[in-house]
Amino acid sequence: MKYLAIVGTNSDVSTNRMLLQFMQKHFSSEAEIELYEIKDLPVFMEPEDSQVPEKVEELSNKILNADGVIIATPEYDHAIPAVLKSALEWISYTSQALTDKPVLIVGASHGTLGSSRAQAHLRQILDSPELAARIMPSSEFLLGKSQGAFDGGGNLIYPDKVSELDEIFREFVLFTDITTKLLAEKVQNKSAKKFTWQE
């Protein structure tokens, strides 16, 4: 499997980035995981020339070429960060590259809840008609107290969380495979929607 792992923050120091880096290394024998930083994307707005920014096209192409997407989100005021919402708006209003794409949500926070409210918020957004991602059901990976969760080598040091992550990731690989086969047999009854800024 080839996955795109989106770092859902613009912070230079982030335990969500560390979590994805750990997953990239820990699951290297099971999948190819590419990390993607959204902090360099422009803030979502209608361009004066109606042209999609190059960085947005890059993200869209990476999503389209991946078998699935992993999104790590922190929690800001019970919600996802503005930078992540902005990135998703770009996808929603342009390529709609997340449509039918298998998605796994993970998250880390300094508190005990491990970004649970932000993950619920992100699920709601990804389920919207213009994104329509295939979110893996009944799965949450919540890493609380994340400031002390990694050693100097970037390894996750909570054994129970490593076991939980192992189980969720293997389920996601299976979910990706099943979803891909299901969509291959899906009858396409409607033509693709053509995007314009005036809609």
From TrEMBL:
Q: Which residues form the NADPH-dependent FMN reductase-like domain?
A: 1-146
Q: Which Pfam families match?
A: FMN_red
**Superkingdom, taxonomy of origin:** Bacteria
Q: Which Gene3D superfamilies match?
A: 3.40.50.360
Entry's Gene Ontology molecular function annotations = FMN binding; oxidoreductase activity
Its Gene Ontology cellular component terms are: cytosol
| PANTHER family the UniProt entry points to | CHROMATE REDUCTASE (PTHR30543), NAD(P)H-DEPENDENT FMN REDUCTASE LOT6 (PTHR30543:SF21)
The protein's name:
FMN reductase
Which species is this UniProt entry from?
Lacrimispora amygdalina
